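hey so i finaly got around to running the thing on Winged helix DNA-binding protein from Sphingomonas rustica. pasting the sequence first so u can double check i didnt mess up the copy paste, my clipboard has been acting weird all day
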Amino acid sequence: MTDEYRPAPVAPDLELDFSEALVIAGDVEGGRVAAEALALAEVRVDERIGFDAASAALSRPHGRMIVIEATGAPDALVEPVLVQANRIALEHRLPIVATVDAGQIDLATSLLMSGNAKVLSAPSLAERVAAIAAARFGLVAPETGEDRQSVAPPRWADEVARIAETLTRLSRGDLSGPGVRDPGRGYRGEDPDGVEDANPREIRTAIRARRMRAQYFDAELFADPAWDMLLDLYASALERRQVSVSSLCIAAAVPPTTALRWISTLNEAGLFERNADPSDRRRAYIALSPKGLAGMRAYVAALRRQGLPLI
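ok and heres what it spat out for the 3d tokens, dont ask me to read them lol
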């Protein structure tokens, strides 16, 4: 006989509305900021505790959203809480919204494997509210500044879909999409052995050129994290170099929370894949998926045929 809590199965078609939250915060300020964001998202704080009491709280039966404020907390306390929260979230289909330091990004993204987990780093209040509201109803978080009650797909979701469609078409050798004419030169993108890989120096040069724009113009004018990450991962694939989540966030040249949102979206679009580090469960690597790699190779080949630079 045991008192261990065993969750009841959840019907797969059950619609959940998480209007209450369990808040786990490393300090008073973290709990205050989380409570403010939850209130704006119309989610009630059911319980607010520290990391030392998290294990017992997570073990109790509940249907609450889990909000973790790990900023400033030591990894030794954060890691077991993330592991347990991830397990509970998977068992109960609970959403997790975790805010972490930049140095904890790899830890959080490697341990929070639930599809309902959202990882933030140095978020604005608006980004917190958007993530919580999206987690509550299982929605895709809108861009900061948009109406948080709108359920329409955000602009960046449309853009990612467009990129995914274009890369997929190029990887198949189909250049006849809207606004693109097939040059008719017999290229077969589906045969990767027939495509000469770019030199990684060529890709890195394009990345450096893109970064130089920030020296003369406001960087926000040219924010294009999806393409910046695709370029970085393509260069890294050519160099046979692994890329951590935190490194890819830096390559995106946007705030960490925005970069993490894009990584999740590109992963869902089938262009990225996440690989666990077999020697360290606290770290995960991001790479181009076979579809993403084939698309990048085909795109660079198409540019060469047209005599166009990579930008």
